[in-house]
Amino acid sequence: MTEGVAWLTRASIGLLPALCFLGALLLLDSYKLVRLRLVTTIIGAGGAVAVACYLVNAGILRATGMDFSDYSRYVAPLIEEAFKGSVIIALIRTRRIGFLVDASVLGYAVGAGFATVENIYYLSSVADPHFTVWIVRGLGTAILHGGMQAIFAAMVLHNADMRDKLDARAIVPPLLLVTLVHAAFNQFVLPPMQETLLVLMCIPPLMLWVFLRSERAVEGWIGSGFEVDQELLALLDSGKFSDSRAGQYLYAMRERFSGEVVADLLCYLRLYVELALRAKGILIMRENDIEVPIDDETKGKLQEMRYLERTVGPTAMRTLNPLMHMNGRDLWQLYMLGK
User: Fold this and answer.
1) 3-state DSSP call for residue 166?
2) CA 13 distance to own-chain centroid
3) Measured at the alpha carbon of residue 329, what is the angle toward residues 35 and 294, in degrees to the nearest 5?
4) Nearest-CA neighbor of 328 among 66, 17, 91?
5) Whether residue 234 has pLDDT greater than 60
6) Which of 2-6, 135-139, 212-216 has the weakest average pLDDT?
7) Is 325 exposed, middle or buried (0-12, 13-18, 19+ CB in 10 A)?
8) Which of 18, 137, 265, 326 lies most in the core, judged by the most C-beta atoms within 10 Å?
9) 121-156 residue pLDDT tens
10) Residue 47 CB-half CA count within 13 A
11) Is residue 249 pLDDT above 70, yes or no?
């Protein structure tokens, strides 16, 4: 085997498995919740995180004089998982993640980008003829990086949904868990090939189980959400909204806000319900491989909603929460329409 062919073989083993598994996740996403452009951007972000971690780790090693082996076992896992996790936290905060499906895909994309850049560095700097090294890096370390971030993203999103906010209690426990798993992998208690086999036996099946379960949850959310949104829209169109409990609640706000603000809140509520129904309809069409473009009318409604949010202010907006029951998934669907 020539040197060039050997290098290409090592590169394929070291780089392709993690990216191929990511491609499989995208194919399984029947609702097309994650766009390829966003995935490639997040892969790039994961690669940038790998460069940042390299610089931070090198700086800490120089400053402390710590043994490299001890550092890679006990310190590096926390730094690397925290840096990768920051990308996921930013995506959740900006409502680009709404379900466990897209959490798994984008979480894995961060880890895959990190592992790709890391393995490219090893390919360029380590001339190791043993293909077992690249099997361990490509099928073990790379899958571990991606899988841990997918699990972290799913756990943080779940915690944020349960607590209705993204705070330290939603983030720290998942971060500690993935750090411990990463650190345990770096202990090399088992021979490297056995650790790689253990990773392949545990992480991909776990991710696929979470992924498929979340697909069913999306289906249930769309069905139940349609009914609630349709009932509220019918009530708004009936001319009897002011006689309903929701209408009485909203009009009672005139004691706290001006009539103009209450009218703006009612307008915002109607726009929200119309766009929520539109978003769920688009997801159903995507499931049937029908791509629906976002029309100018929908874009105009989104712009009007943003204008109303700025006009009435955050205090008045919070009064709509009991009527809209808005959570992370509902906010995500509006983000999807705005893409």
Assistant:
1) coil
2) 27
3) 45
4) 91
5) yes
6) 2-6
7) exposed
8) 18
9) 887 776 655 677 777 777 788 888 999 999 999 899
10) 14
11) no
User: Token pair 């999306």 is at which residue?
Assistant: 218
Under 8 Å between Cβ of 39 and 22:
yes
Mean pLDDT of all residues in 107-126: 87
Q: How far apart are CA 159 and CA 180, in angstroms?
A: 19
Tokens of 8: 């290409």
Question: What are the tokens at 146?
Answer: 């991606």
Q: Angle, nearest 10°, between helix axes 36-64 and 76-93?
A: 150
The residue count of the chain comes to: 339
- Find the angle CA(320)-CA(322)-CA(325) to the nearest 5 degrees: 95
Tokens of 80: 């690397």
Q: For the chain, give the longest Cα–Cα distance.
A: 83
- Please tell me the predicted confidence (pLDDT) of residue 186: 85
| CA separation, residue 271 to residues 71, 94, 128, 247 (Å) | 54, 21, 61, 16
Tokens of 112: 């895959």
Q: Quick one: pLDDT at residue 56? A: 95
Q: Is the dihedral of CA 184, 53, 171, 106 positive or negative?
A: negative
For residue 93, CA distances in Å to 85, 106, 156, 157, 170 come to 12, 14, 11, 10, 12
The residues, ordered by sequence, that sit 6+ positions from 10 with a Cβ below 8 Å of its Cβ are 123, 128, 131, 134
330 with 276: CB under 8 angstroms? yes
On the question of pLDDT at 65 being above 80, the answer is yes
Read out DSSP for 103-143?
HHHHHHHHHHHHHHHHHHHHHHH-----HHHHHIIIIIIHH
- Joined tokens for residue 13: 């083993």
Whether the CB-CB separation of 87 and 46 falls below 8 Å is answered with: yes
pLDDT at 9 > cutoff 90: no
Lowest-confidence segment of 78-87, 157-166, 276-285 by average pLDDT: 276-285
